[in-house]
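Final paragraph of the annual report: two paired records, presented back to back.
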Amino acid sequence: MSPVDQGSREGGNSILAALPETVMRGLRPQLEHVTLEVARVIYEPGQPIQALYFPIDAVISLVTPLEEGAIVEVATIGNEGIVGVPLGSGGAPATVRAISQVAGRCSRMNRRAFTAAAAAHRPLAELIQRYEQALFSQIAQAAACNRLHSNEARLSRWLLMSHDRVGRPEFAITQEFLAQMLGSRRATVTVSAGILQRAGLIHYRRGHMTIVDRAGLEHAACSCYNTIRAALARVAADGSN
């Protein structure tokens, strides 16, 4: 199943969907449904993480702010994952900024309640451990991708990952935000998006992106897309074996 298909069984998030019903009965009363607008900052580096977010159709980026004001994306999280892990003992502060890149819905849970639930339920603790490993793999793969692959290939990868998470072909995103996520100049993103649009793969107009040819976009993307997707898909699959 794709991340979207898995998540449809429990409000849209694959991590929650993968948990046994006995565990979910205890978690549901602790979950609060929230809607995030575009560019909403969830937490900043150095701030304590007070809550964890389970995206449903929102997409959230983990970024590292640089001294000169630029930011570099290190991971993208959607309905396949959790925002706020790993959690250190005592609620260690965040090391990155978490910011919503595509508006949408999330389930939110208090950090202390989540930590207590993970300590009480082994299936939850094991699932979180597998997800943390997949998240670290995504961060490492993205670092290599940003260094080695073309801007068109990286943009294609980013759009495919966002498409997987929102579950619809159209979503709002500005070129300025795309440039920040890709660590490129806005002019470079404009050129790359134009190449993909002329090839009939996407349509972009006034802050709205539409995936026109999904198969063609997969062909244009670098191999990092399939590598990251496979690692994330194994998180829930490994728990069912």
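The closing record of the year follows.
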Amino acid sequence: MSALHNAIDCTTAPANTGAPLRVLVCRQWAELEAFRTDWNHLLQICSSASIFQTPEWLGAWWHAFGAKKQLLAVIFINADGETVGLAPLYIEEHSFFGMPMKVLRMVGAGSSDSDALDFITASGYEEACANAFLSWLNENPDWDICALETLPEHSRTARYISYERQTPDWRMYSDSTPNFLIDLPATWSEYLQRLESGFRPLLTRYPRRLQSRYTVSIQRCEREEELDSALQTLFTLHQMRWTGLGKPGAFSVAERQEFYFRMAHAFLERGWLEFWLLKLEQEIVAAQFCFRYGNTVSLLQEGFNPKYIADKVGYALRAHVLEEMIRSGATRYDFLGGADAYKVKFGAKQGCYVTLRFAGASWRGRAYLALQHQKQKIKQWLRRRLPAGILASLGSQQASAAQQKESTE
């Protein structure tokens, strides 16, 4: 299958948005790669695009995690033969009471690594792509559940699909998860003034105290020949905390390590990588793995040597990275998903991601979603009525179980 390589120019009003779109399906990654020029063009001209929609991110993810999955990447073509949207998807097989069940998900979902996934569409074609996608689902019913996860809260894809599928013939459920980000000011001093006075010393006084006790150096990984070693150090530092708690840790999964190697090399080549290392007396004791897309810097992963916890090495490194990003003109620092309380102390505000799950004609899909929805309602009921101590204990057990599940998938 050959790509058309003539994605629409969104700088002008889109033409033929009312005409039905033609749908092409790529079942091999090499087929989707043939559309890379169109793909990159759509990302370049659409202001809402995120790094999680790039070929670099999704390609690295697919090659690391896609071995047992069936690719179904959907390409939307308008009446003029222009590529106006892409939706990289895959089928994953599950078991429901011993019966096979097929779940359609977006490439990047399912490993707890990706955020802000969405269809990649030309401006003005969001509704047309959503309608074409839903028509394609109707005509190709070999799926039980469609799960569109971690969509941005203002996603037009989410809005149109949710609106179109609120019918008796379809069962749709939606939920949201929090994410946190900092709107960065023009100067470091202005940023510090926004913080609570009791928290500010962690980013000012403690880094100075660290300098008085050790020979400190902070470096950005910029050379390809040093990248693999730096990644191994990140894995080790991150694992130290989890193994110390008797838990496997994120990087006990071989596929995730492969994903980071592939993605980091691709990001370094594109100039997107913000991978920072802090050394004390020539020993790397903290690492922060970030990347930059446009004016947004996102924190993906970090780690530090627990031996230096009293020295606040993690805070010192984050303070340095934040200061450097502000100096370089970044306007946003994204903590990504997760409701960790410490993010608010850094001045982050809360947003959310939206997940849509729906089933069409499949009775298995409908039954599964109804059961999951009921379980969620029970959890919400318990949160309102159980004492805080019991809830904290249950939450800790659930987090431990999720960590163990992640390490074995």
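The radius of gyration is 23 Å. This concludes the annual technical report; the extension proposal builds directly on these records.
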